[in-house]
Every structure is written in structure tokens, then in C-alpha cells.
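Case study: 6-pyruvoyl-tetrahydropterin synthase-related protein.
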Amino acid sequence: MGADTYGHIFKGDLLYKSIKEGNIYPLFTQFWYNGVQPFRYWGPLSYYVLAGCEFISGGNPINGYVIFIGYSFFIGGLGWLLWGIHQRRILLSLVFGILWFFLPENIRVLFVAGNIPRVIIAALIPYLFYFVWKFVKDDDRSSIIPIALFMCAIIMCHLMIGAMVGIASFIFLSLYSIMNKKIEKSVHVILTMLLSFAICGIWIYPALKGGLVSMDSGATSSQMMELLATPFTISLNPFLRLFGIVDREYFYYGLSILIISILGIFVSNKKSAPGFVTSIVIFLGTTTAFVPMLEKMPFSQLLWMVRFTPIAYALFIISLLNWTKCKKYFMIIMVVLIAADSSLSFNLSLYPQIKSAEVDNILSSAKNITKQRIALLDDSTFGAYPSFYICSEDKKISYSYGWAWQGAATAQNIVLLNTALEKGYYNYMFDRSLEMGCDTVVVAKAPMKKDKRDFNIINNAAKFSQYTLYKETSEGYVFHRKASENFGVVTKYSGLCIGRSASDIPLEYPSFEIGSSWNIEDYTLDELSKYKVIYLSDFRYNSRSKAENMVSKLSSMGIKIIIDMNRIPADTITNRMVFLGVTAQPITFNTKMPDMFFNDKKYESVNFKDEYKRWNTVYLDNVPQVTGFSWVNGKKVPFLGNGKERNKNVTFLGFNLIFHGMENDDSRVLAIMNTVMGTKSSILPKRVLVPINLKYGQNSITINSPKNNVNTTVAFLDAYKSNSGEIYAKQNLLNVNKGETKIRVTYPYLFQGIAVSVIGLLGFAFFIIYIYKRVV
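Here is what the predicted structure looks like once written out:
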């Protein structure tokens, strides 16, 4: 059970088998995402725990996971028993130890989310706060070292949750120090937690430097906060679980916990009140009503408040344990309420499970025929299960997907492939699957666009890229293309897209390549002259005059330049969007665009979708040659035009036309764009498959190529160091030239990471000396 469970099991199994072979920290695996660094962006400690459990099970990863569940419950519960011994409330602590992983959010994290690092952290939290309490309340200076150790363990499981523990501790200790006059000790704890991040620098520095900080960076912080927030009418409704409404989107905080926390603020003592207040503050942060406020706060990217919930539970239990003057019968009533409230989550049959029989059928078929790699186009409808099953022991096969795509160098490729599946861009989908080196493509039926599920449409797109149907099941289709066991691809694109908003263009026009930079000045004229068409949308430049000169030179060379005027840099002085003398003027349409006239034909657009009812766009002003226009309030408004003389091959585009055609499914507008772009969706780049010799060693890759400029279909990582032969990235994939290329997979930024850890350790050593010399 659990959405992510199998992905974690695969990594634990990978680590276990690597250790058996003498590789205690594998830097690379070829099985996911065309090659990925398995522990660079995900805290490695969790996987050493899973590998240890697999060792205890005798090498069976599934049995190892079952052992892991048992240990998690036992170790987490034991932490609360430690509290009971300290507080002399053993029976009460024993009850909370048993209940700990059955509290609503804790059991959801385990059996719905399947987030193993968060489970381990939940088991460690009672110990961390135990030593925090001993240090702050009991003045036990020796507790500072365990605080750092447990904090480092949490960080090395999950960086983001480590930061959340620090934030929650800051809130709690701020309240506690004010109410109980323990300011200095509280400051010492926060400093220790901060130093713990520096101590873990050997892992954190490469993760941050890589741009993906293992903090589930799949979207902007505001989007994720909105996605994770829950209306209080749901998060405080205990009865929803009675009707089986328990899935990944369902969050229940615990009505009993909130009521007792509110009560505790008014009738408990100074030791208990800070924990009750903190738990309420965290709950309020999980609600949709507080998202606008959280977005404006510092470090908002860390405020995914649902993930703070286990921390809130711990502080809540600590507050109950310290409510020593609470009447025994009243405490019994509260514990019974909490147990009853949590018991609705005990029915594990309500939790989602992978339909392994149906999924096994289609995946086993794909594995049987695959020689190099599988493209699993399921939009995660199969969950994380394929991440384990496809790469399992009976027949290990690489595939271009995997669980937790954010850490992949090919993340952009994967996002566009998923978009192609969802929106029906099947020509692009099969072509780019071939570019990723996939001789087998599995297409799931569930996520496909309803009006484009016609098998003939899919099959024709497959044929364009020379894939043929191998098998159809209830879950989807298996397509296969004959190829050698290891092959690379040599490709010729006719067009190039440059700019932040240009990445979706190849979905409609697969013959276009996405540029490696948004800045046009980062390319040479020689590089750009290899293309027939260049599309600029939301592009960048250092100097407008230099950019204009580049475009004019390319135009005079006969290369077609299309400039999306809806998204060009604004003039730094006038704040007007001008390029080559043409100005983009703002205009807004409601419901639909006006009739468009192009090539002596009238084009009537379709209505905008509901989310685009108000269409904010631009028209063209001062364009030399108008080739497309509309009439708006009796005025001729150009949306398409060309330059003159040196700029005769430059086309200026308004109305955000291509985005409208793609997003609103406007075939008439796309017909205009086909003429403008000089291509259509059925025209693919020219690709030639090249047999290559590719061998993986322990953190090494050796490639023999018979030709130059070969895309090896292996992901390009910044951890690669070439011992022989030139390597370079194109479309996030590793390209090599003719001959033998030997590559070492290194630990990136190793010396910088060690330096940060050494600084952290030295700082902590001096801090310990300061604390012990301090007169208490």
C-alpha cells in the first residue's frame, strides 16, 4: 500500500545490492529516467534503513519492507515510552506510543502516501523532542549532542521536513521561552539545529547546487500550498472515513486533537500551553483560508503545512504528558476520544492499492520484448509500482520514467511526454520516446484525452515513428520498434524554439527543437543558421540592438524567424514591447477572437475555454507588411506581418495565436499557424538509429560510437567526467562523437560539500565548548 512505497523499495533494494557488490554509495543507476543519481536529491539515510531491513529479511525487498513497518511502529512507540519514564507517566506514554502511528495523518503518510522518509522521521521525532525538552527544561547540557545527531538524521532522510522541524521548533520554543523564561536555552537549541544543516553539507551542497533540493520541487511553492491545503470542513470531519473517502487527496487532522488543544490553552499549565498553541497554529496553516497569508511569509516555499502535522501531534502529546494537574478521569476521557477519533483510520481496506494483476499483464508484455528501454506513458496512473516491477530481479529493464521525477536530468522531457499523452499530441509522444531511446512504448488508456482516444489516431502516430502494436490490454497498448540492443540516435531538426514560453511548441510541431538557452545571444550565428525556422517566444537578450542585428543577419541568410510579440522583453526606458521597430499593443477579447483574415480567407475562431474567457493579448503596431488582420470596433487590427528588405523573412505574430490554437483546440487557427511555421504536426525530425556499444561499470560508462554527434539516449548529468572523448548535452541527453568515450560518474561538488561539513562540525565543537564552560 502507498502511492510511493514501491519507488522507495526499489531504491532500498538498489542500495542493498550495491553494498553486496562493494559499492557502499552508488552514484548512478541506468534503470530510471535514462540514468539518474539515486541519492543526490533524496536523503540517503532512509534507503540505508530499508537496505538494513532487506538484509534482515534475507535479501527479499518486500519482506524487508514488512520488517521496516514493524520496526517503525516499535521504535516510534519506544520513543514515547522514554518520555513516560522521564515524566513518570509510563502508562499514559505507553498508550500514546501504541497510538502514535495510528494517528490520522501518520497512518495516511504510511499507507496512503507511502512516504518512507517521513515515516522514519515520525519515528525519530519523539526522541528529538525528548532531548530538546531535557536541554531546555531540565538544563541537561549533555542533551545538545543527541539533539544534533537526531536533527542530522532527520535532515539526511528529507531536507524539507528537516527544515519544517526547525520552523516548528522555533515556534514552540519561542512560546515556551516567553511563558517559562528559558530564552537562552531555546536559542541554543535553534542554533544547534542550524548547525546540523551545515554538518550535513556534504550531501546538502550538491543537492542545492544541482537546482533540485529534494524538496519535491515539482511546482511553485504557492501552487503546492494550495494543492496541499484542505478546507476545515473536510480536515475536521471524522465521518468522511466511514464512507470510504480515504485517498491521497484526503487530509484529516483530528477533531479530538484540535478540541483538546483549544481546551488545554485555557486550563493547562505554562509547560503545556506552548505545545497546544503550536499544534493549533499548524492546523490553521493546513486550511485553505490561511494560504494567502502563508504565501506572503518568509520562506513560504517551506510552508507546506500538511507536512508539519506529525510535528504538531508530537508537541500535542508532550503537552498532555506535562499536564500533570489534569484529573485522572478527565485524562482518560481525552485519551479515549483520541483513540476513537483515530480508530476510523484503522480500516486499511479503504486505502488505495495497485491493481497489480492488470498492471503486471501489460508491463510483463513490455519487458519481454524490450531490448533497450521502455517509455511508460501512464501519467502515474500505475503509481510507483512500475518503478520496482520493471527493474525487478527476474528481468531488469531500464525505462524513461520512475517515481519522483523531480530529481531527473530529463525532467523536462518527461513533463512534455506526459503533456503529449494527456492532450493527444501523439506524433510528438512517439517521436520523443524514440529520442529517449525507447524501443517499447506503453500507452495507458486512462489518462488519454477523451476525444483523442481513437485507436486509429494513436496507431497512425506510432507508424510515423515506425512503432507497431504488439499488444492491447484493458489497461493500455504496447507498441514496439525493432532496434539493436543498444542504439543511439542522430537527428536533424528543421526548427528551433528559443524562450521560456517556447517549450510547448514542439508538441504541435515535433520538427522543432527546444533551445538550450532563453537568451538569443548565447547562440552563434553558425549554430542558428543550421535551422530553417527559428521561433522566439518570451526570449531574452543582453542588448536589443545586438539581438535585432542577429535576427536581421539570419533573415538575410534566408532563415525564417517568427517572433511571438505577446512575449518579448520590454524596453527598459519606455517599458514598451518593441522589436525591429514593431510594437506590441495590449488588447483584450472576451468569449472568442474576432474573425481573422489571412491569405484572402476568413477564419472564424472557436470560443475560449472557461479558464480563458478573458483573453489578454497584443496586436501589432507599425508592422511593415500586414499579412493577417481583424476588424475590431471598425478598426483594422493586425495580428500577423512581415518585415521588409533585410527583415523580409521575419514574421511578427500577435493575438497569442499559437497558444490559442493549442489550448482551445482551434483547428482553423492552427491551419494559419501551419502556413506561418512552414510545417505541421505530422512532419517529424529526421532520425537515424545508430547501433552503439554501451557498458555500465561501477560508477562508470563506456561508449563506442561509429558516428559523430550521436545522442546516446542516456541522460546527461553534471556528475559526468570524460576520461576520453568529448561529451555534451542536447535535449538533456548525452551526446558523443565517433570512437570510444569513457565516463566516470563522480560525486559532484565533493570538496565544497566536505568544506561545508567541516565548518559545521568545527562550529558545533566550539558551540559545545561554549555551553559547557557557560556558568549555568
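For the exam, be able to explain this: The chain has a mean pLDDT of 90.
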